[in-house]
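FAQ: What does the model actually see?

It sees only this:
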Amino acid sequence: MKNIAILGSTGSIGSSALKVINDFPGEFRVRAVSANSNIGLLLRQIKKFRPRFACVNDPLEALKLKSLASLGTKVLAGADGLKVIVQDREIDLVLLAISGSSALGSLLDAIDAGKDVCLANKEALVMAGPIIMKKAARKKVKIIPIDSEQSAIWQCLEGEEKQKLKSIYLTASGGPFRKARSADLKKVTIKHVLNHPRWRMGKKITVDSASLMNKGLELIEAMYLFGVTPDRIKVLVHPEAIIHSMVEFIDGVVVAQLSVTDMRIPIQYALSYPERLPNRLKGVDFIKVGSLNFENPDYKRFPCLKLAYRAARESGTSPCILNAANEISVDEFLKGRLSFADIPGVISRVMSRHRNISSPGLEDIREKDAWARREAIAVIKMKGK
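And it is asked to produce this:
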């Protein structure tokens, strides 16, 4: 029986993880849950799973939850509360599904506590990949990827010698604008952007998928997770989204991981690793699928992906700058203050003003992150004048 802490339990990944856990009552137990602000859903999760701990970002919301939660659940607040959770001796595995750069502190705390981490957050690794991976190696902690693409690569590499790896192929569905013209992208609405053809995800990651920045973040994430240079990672648009990624070895053999588009599959494997457990989900119907298609991404229509390759090649603090400027731009777009087509321009402007630190420490990362956010806001304000 594994005791699981789910940080970000009310989001799409956290909710799917709880569905998986619910299907295997003899394998997993929910020891802790956390939410940013969705108190209603968090309360329902507490009543169903009876965790030892629950954490809410806002202390006032935590007080409200404390008056409603069951007596067996200890309610905590903020980053300090999350730290208490990951340090709990009874927790075997931390599933980190907090979105955005705010997950970095909890990830480092979990590693410091010697906990294996099922990672569903891209931004923390993009910001501080070398620091995280070195710390994990020193603490002998496993970073188990949950993103379908990284999970696919991880599974394809299982039992193989890393030096025999030639290339990684990251697949992308192409998002809602795969066939759109560049001129059309200037007129898209928030509703259009959030209408992903294959996946149902949170708003931020859905916007990133539409701009292909999500694939850019995954490129940088894979670079750090698997210790490869960006030129050995190739992005392929694969609209059927059946092949979640592939690896090519030096002898020309390509190994791919295929499954239906359901996040419960990589979540289940991350939780059960190194075991595989049965489930009731549908398998791939190859006859119904008919064919698998591949295209090169269009870097002119989707410049965010090109910017991500640039940040990956520069390394140092450049990926942190890319991520911070993108987070601000996406947030401003969702608030109606920036057009979708203007997102890459803001990111490019901020990156051009940045002075790279080639081997940053954690404080450097935090300072650059804060600087890039301020700079992105300034660029967006100038665009509005």
